[in-house]
Amino acid sequence: MRYIIGICFCLLLLAGCQEEETPTPEEEPALTGPAISYTIDESGLQVTMNNGQDWMKVPVEVDELFAGEYQGSKTELIDQSYVLSQDRLAFIVGGFEQTAVLSSTDQGKTWNTAELPDAIQGIRLRIIGFTSEQDGFVILSGGRTMSAEGNQIYQTTDGGKTWNLAGGAPSERIVQSGTFVSKDIGFMSFGSTGATEYYRTTDGGSNWDTFEVELPGIYKDVFSVMESAEFNGDQIVMQMGQGTNGDYYGGNVKARLVSDDNGESFEMTGLIDPDDVMSDEEEANWRENDSYY
Known about the structure:
Layout: H1 2-21, E1 37-41, E2 44-48, E3 56-57, E4 82-84, E5 89-94, E6 99-104, E7 112-115, E8 123-130, E9 136-145, E10 148-156, E11 164-167, E12 175-180, E13 186-190, E14 197-201, E15 209-210, E16 212-214, E17 225-232, E18 235-241, E19 254-259, E20 265-272, H2 280-284, H3 286-289
Parallel strand pairs: 16-20
Antiparallel strand pairs: 1-2, 2-3, 4-5, 5-6, 6-7, 8-9, 9-10, 10-11, 12-13, 13-14, 14-15, 17-18, 18-19, 19-20
């Protein structure tokens, strides 16, 4: 009996030792950074959809991404000339004899190239965006002579398979920025010297009218470049920056404007301080601090 108990006790001790000695699997380090990103190297343009675990080569010659009057650094894509999302990859390519949109809606398994008909020769500014699964826009500027250039607006209603020239804003000044917040409503700003001009369309880019941007006090001389606009409920919220020469708080602070009339007019409602260069008191008291009255 004692012999049997002793054997059982030894077995229990052995089992306990085995449990203690079983190595705990190491946890894989958490992936950081954007899940979707790109790189340009000797292999060309490559995109990852899973934090860099896998990469796919985009079927385009790198030079085609930088053709046109403005060619950028060629080490990174030109700002706003592409879309990277789980549902869509899209790139504006070309810029001289032909300009097109290269896109994929199945994470790079298949690709579609759609020409932008009658595109400006020698494009400078190139912007692409989508306001729904099927509706998207392209804004081009180019053909610059001195401080004047042309602009074109393209629309797609089939998810980027085809693009149609909708028109352009009636200004020959340098295009600063542009965007659409829906299929029909879009905005553009113009000017390199002098006061900025703001234009709005409500029919997808065929017709444009000027709209008002109310910047009080010193802010009319600080903020001049429309950077983005989007619907927030029934309001349209616009973000304005200082441009390349801005020096208000180091050029880092932006203005927040709101429209309650579908973009016919905008009123400044506060400051945006993404880099925390202002104190909370300065940001909260933006009207009083900068001679609003």
